[in-house]
């Protein structure tokens, strides 16, 4: 007596069901089909990965709380002037740190927080509502508060993308482009510092802070230009180690809107 489904058959009309043994000719076809599908899925996955542009080498290290000591300024955006550099300071989430820093402006402070860094540009995110305290003056030296240094006498043409600094420097990946547009606008609305991403002719990346009419406020009518490929007129400036772009407000023109761009052609610059 044989158990149904446990022997092979030469019946050309043979078929199988899940709980019985698969006929040999069907078994071979199924194995070959599974191998082909697996190889196709692997190739498609590799193609999709290779087709994606790099989001950039940006880091947001929330596992390592650090401290910085320096002189705290409110304008144009909250920033800490240390002995080595000038660092913008932001709050957790999509909002600025103005209210949290209110009692400490124009004084020496120690700030605890997390570092966001990309291409050598760093900003500080406060780690808690109690992240700021008055510095121990016995253990600190006097900090030199720099003046705004305008590097260009006349505006020059620049091409690139208006982004929000916090996301671009590591809080989001990607922190630029069409996929990030809604987030960038919300961050800028919340008071986070807008920046400009472009490539210098000497291939040294600069990510300057944007000031329009020399003010920190980013006009609502300019939200339409965020995360687009734009051309604008601006003068380069510097506040300590912080690069700044002083933009002519009526000069911004969209070159390419709502389209993802290859990383090799996204940013350009012209002018001297």
Summarize the structure.
The protein has 272 residues and is an alpha+beta fold.
Task: Tell me what you see in this structure.
The protein is α+β, with helices and mostly antiparallel strands. The chain is built from four helices and 16 strands. The protein folds into three domains: 19-49; 58-139, OB fold (Dihydrolipoamide Acetyltransferase, E2P), CATH 2.40.50.110; 148-269, OB fold (Dihydrolipoamide Acetyltransferase, E2P), CATH 2.40.50. It has helices at residues 24-51, 98-101, 165-171, 181-189, and strands spanning 58-60, 66-73, 79-81, 86-90, 107-118, 121-126, 132-134, 148-150, 156-164, 194-199, 205-206, 209-212, 229-239, 242-247, 253-256, 268-269. Strands 8, 9, 10, 11, 12, 13, 14, 15 and 16 form a nine-stranded mixed beta sheet that branches. The chain has a five-stranded mixed barrel with strand order 2-3-4-6-5. A hairpin with a 2-residue loop joins strand 5 and strand 6. The termini are far apart.
Main traits of this protein?
272 residues; alpha+beta; OB fold (Dihydrolipoamide Acetyltransferase, E2P); 3 domains; five-stranded mixed beta barrel; 4 helices; 32% strand
Total DSSP E strands: 16
Instruction: Report the sheet-strand fraction.
Output: 25-35%
**Structural class by secondary-structure content:** alpha+beta
When the domains are counted, the total is: 3
How far do the termini sit from each other?
93 Å
The CATH topology of the largest domain? OB fold (Dihydrolipoamide Acetyltransferase, E2P)
Total DSSP helices: 4
Major β-sheet profile: 9 strands, mixed
Helix content: 10-25%
Order of helices and strands: HEEEEHEEEEEHHEEEEEEE
CATH class of the largest domain: Mainly Beta
Radius of gyration: 28 Å
Instruction: Give the overall pLDDT as a whole number.
Output: 81
Q: Given the C-alpha coordinates, what overall shape results?
A: elongated
Q: Which CATH architecture of the largest domain would you pick?
A: Beta Barrel
């Amino acid at each position: 007596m044989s158990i149904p489904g446990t022997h092979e058959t030469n019946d050309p009309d043979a078929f199988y069901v899940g709980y019985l043994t698969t006929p040999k000719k069907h078994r071979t076809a199924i194995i070959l089909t599974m191998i082909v599908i697996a190889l196709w899925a692997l190739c498609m996955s590799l193609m999709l990965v290779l087709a994606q542009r790099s989001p950039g080498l940006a880091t947001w290290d929330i596992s390592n709380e650090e401290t910085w000591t320096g002189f705290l300024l409110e304008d144009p955006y909250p920033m800490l002037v240390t002995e080595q550099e000038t660092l913008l300071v932001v709050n957790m989430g999509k909002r600025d740190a103005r209210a949290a820093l209110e009692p400490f402006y124009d004084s020496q402070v120690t700030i605890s927080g997390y570092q966001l860094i990309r291409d050598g540009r760093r900003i500080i995110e406060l780690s808690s509502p109690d992240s700021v305290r008055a510095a121990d003056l016995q253990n600190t030296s006097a900090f030199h508060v720099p003046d705004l240094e305008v590097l260009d006498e006349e505006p020059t043409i620049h091409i690139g993308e208006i982004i929000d600094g916090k996301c671009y420097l590591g809080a989001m990946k990607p922190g630029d482009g069409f996929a990030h547009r809604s987030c960038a606008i919300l961050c800028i609305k919340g008071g986070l510092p807008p920046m400009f991403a472009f490539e210098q002719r000497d291939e040294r990346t600069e990510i300057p802070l944007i000031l329009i009419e020399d003010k920190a406020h980013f006009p609502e009518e300019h939200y339409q230009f965020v995360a687009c490929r734009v051309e604008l007129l601006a003068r380069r400036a510097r506040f300590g180690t912080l690069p700044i772009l002083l933009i002519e407000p009526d000069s911004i023109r969209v070159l390419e809107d709502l389209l993802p761009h290859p990383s090799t052609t996204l940013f350009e610059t012209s002018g001297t």
